[in-house]
Write a structure and sequence with these properties.
By secondary structure, the chain is α+β, with helices and mostly antiparallel strands. It has a single domain, classed as Orthogonal Bundle (Cytochrome p450), CATH 1.10.630. Helix content is 49%, strand content 9%. 42% of the residues are buried. The N terminus is likely disordered. Its cofactor is heme. Keywords: Heme, Iron, Metal-binding, Monooxygenase, Oxidoreductase.
Amino acid sequence: MTEMPQLPPMPPGVFNPFQPGFAEDPYNHYREMRDILPVQRHPMGVWFISRHADVATILRDARLSVSEINLGAGPMRDQYEALIADAPVKLVTIMNSDPPDHTRLRALVGKVFTPRSIGALEPMVTQHVDAALDRIADAGSADLIEALAFPLPFAVISAMLGMPETDHKRLLELTETLVVALEPVGDPQVMKAIVRAEVELDAMMREVIAWKRNNPADDLLSALIQAEQHGDLLTDDELVAQVLLLYVAGHHTTVNLIGNGVAALLRNPDQHALLRSNPDLIGNAVEEFLRYDSPIHQTRRITTAPYSLGDQEIPAGSMLIACLGAANRDERVFGPDAEALKIDREQARQHVSFSLGPHHCLGSALGRMEGRVAIGRLVSRFPKLALAGPVRWNGRMNLRGATAMPISV
């Protein structure tokens, strides 16, 4: 787990990722948070929000900021300033910008993330999945993360962007470092490594963009370069940021959707059998996987004025952590069986895993499609699919997912 400031012993209901067993299963702890302290000011200097209704409220509230520049004095402001102090690269994406920048960026990027463009990718995704399943069938067993969940979204993103010949291994290594920035970071050496990765990735992506300007094709990067809104185009800085966002956020969330979803299914044999007998449930099953074990557990908002939530008055400049993983198990919305996996759950799509409101994930349709194709074809291809050993988790608080999942077929 990423190093964090040492915290004093925590009373019940206070967010504590260091308690035994949290990395393997944080959900009992999330239930305590919802029941005891659903809106809490934490010793880390942030506010944790864990009930579905409150999380949905702050995600939809356009008055809240996503830009760290609005943070007030405190540990989070100190961490942000330390992270950017020596960074010559400032990656402004639709995830960390407010209007009017966010409105402009989302309009431009949204022009190429259409249902039609995502649908056109499905044959390519199916081809990648079937090739991986062929290799698993030949071997008889595999680590599902290594064999399918991890390489699939990276290959899809590279193909959809139309990436030229480049050092894909190095690109993957650097984005693996960069993804740590989505976790609470307390180690100065880790922060320096993140900055170095940003600088190298920035240079790598600028070369790719320059090449693509001279060699346009029918691909996403060419479309992003050409995307226009009222005479406006994305700058090179903005293009770099959006491409890296795809690799960092788009890759890891899909890895976790596939890995966490298959783990949940194989740990619930009745649901596995239900999906095998009713393959048309795969679309709703993906929504339930997103709800049951969210690919991303937290997202943040920042208050720009005093803000009331529940019976709490939150000062301006405060960071609010919306606990998506906790909200997705809230029995107040999903009923008394919210802790159970039910692939035919009627309210499954009420999850908040792709956020809500102005920052709803533009890539949600792509992630859903990859999950539907990968998990659906895996289950239908292998009637005897089973776990062949313990699942190993990555220990992250935010992008929590499996790093190893031995399966037999």
